[in-house]
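Working notes for the structural subgroup meeting. M.R. asked for a predicted model of this chain before we commit to crystallization trials. I am recording the input and output together here so anyone reviewing the notebook later can reproduce the run.

Input as submitted:
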Amino acid sequence: MADNLKRKFNQAGYVSLRNVLTVNEKKMIKNVIYENFKQHIKLPKLSKFDIENINFHKELINFRKLKPKKFGEIYDKINLNSKFRSLFYSNKFMNYFAKCLNVKSNNIYINGFMMRFDAPFDLRNKLNWHQDSPYYMMSYPKYNAGVCWCAITKNNDDNGTLKFIPKSHSKLIKTIGSKKDKHRSEQYTLDITEKENKKTENLNQNFGDMSLLHINLKHRSGDNISKKFRITIGCRFIDMAKSFNVGKEIYQFNDERFNKK
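Returned structure, recorded in token form:
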């Protein structure tokens, strides 16, 4: 299994696995979401809480619309939640990361923890074609690193699941960062050829499925045209043994070392 993971991760730029999250891990994630929103939206008893229930998503969409600041605060709290983050430090996940990067699990750094709530028809947080490496330059120049995605909702083309181009991870493509306003994240957008665009695949996942993407893999956000949030969790995992730039956690692409001709 280790050799297959390493080979596919390095050759195709991604690995997708089904039913990685256990029943207890799914329950923990649902509990974190429930406990953070239960005082702000109408929810059933925890025992009857269904992450796919349309009424839950209606309540969440309305809450985000009427109280965006409060929604943002809860979003930040969830992403800082220790219970949620501890999932990726478990031996199971660390072993997956280690096999893909071909290193020992005690040589792995994890950051970029995220529980994303991507709303229907949201353009503000949508990312165009990009690579993650310009945002997280700790792995320069070898880029032996990846991004972990686990689905919490059923994610497909309708709710804007991530789109990616297999085997597009061979090198870092240099781009110039841009930021439209203070409420939006900086973007390092790539130009994609027609040939690449035809190779685009959707990261279709069910609750509990996991995908590991090479940090140089070209990808973008999809268009959520459904009536529900797309909810995913994830993190970034980096090899500390071969090349690791301490303190270069984010937005280091314009560092003069990386712009030499």
